[in-house]
Amino acid sequence: MLLKISHLTEYRFEEPVHYALQQLRLMPKSGVGQNVVYWDVTVKGGVREQEFDDQFNNRVMLVSINPGVKGISILCEGEVDTTNMHGVIGQNNGFAPLWFFLKPTPLTEPGSRVEKLIEQLGTDHESDVTRLHALSHLIGKVVPYQTGETHSETTAEEALISASGVCQDHAHIFVSAVRQMGYPARYVSGYLLMNDRTQQDATHAWAEAYLPDLGWVGFDVSNGISPDDRYIRVATGLDYKDAAPISGLRMGSGGEDMDVMLQVQQ
């Protein structure tokens, strides 16, 4: 499936910015199940300083903001040809070893709620895949999708306590539980072609677990499936902070607003 992406992020600052540096993880790579036909990043109000691959093999662009500006825009446009791999990515070929993906983070640290979730899941499952699909279904049932109840700093445990969340929370809970069950797991950010609309408010997030016979396999808790040819993988990491589309720092007073306009279409 040939997918076309237009992703515009605009920041507006109350006061002129003296210095700011942003990391962009907005550049998908060709790999299993996806071939990047073309991809362009246009920055207005800033300068593209450097590009590199991080420890998770994500392509990262460093952007500095022009001193004194009160806004910056980042436009990503491209086409990616995808193939339905039923969520199977395969063997680990990044810089980070598998044992690294067993490491908990502040956002995915397991607690009593994650332990209770694993206990509810039980052990009577035909295979690793069916076990993790059952976990995905359970998380979706225990934490229904609802916007406005969590934020980027909400932990897996907090989302379970609030019993509501979005795709980021679902991915964090899944990653936390799967690691506690002994499987390496990672957070994934990317794009998803929606069936009912092309205009979206944000990028999507899901998770991947490493299974002995299959390698990395994706699980989208929010939609109750493994990723298919409607998905584009952009970045991975231990949690959201490693794979955030845009992160960084700035010097200067005043607040800021951000607008996102995203279109994903066939």
TrEMBL record:
Gene3D superfamilies assigned to the protein according to its UniProt record, in alphabetical order: 3.10.620.30
InterPro entries in alphabetical order: Bac_transglu_N (IPR013589), Papain-like_cys_pep_sf (IPR038765), Transglutaminase-like (IPR002931)
Pfam families referenced in this protein's UniProt entry, alphabetically: Bact_transglu_N, Transglut_core
Superkingdom of the source species: Bacteria
Residue intervals of the Transglutaminase-like domain: 159-223
Protein's recorded name: Transglutaminase family protein
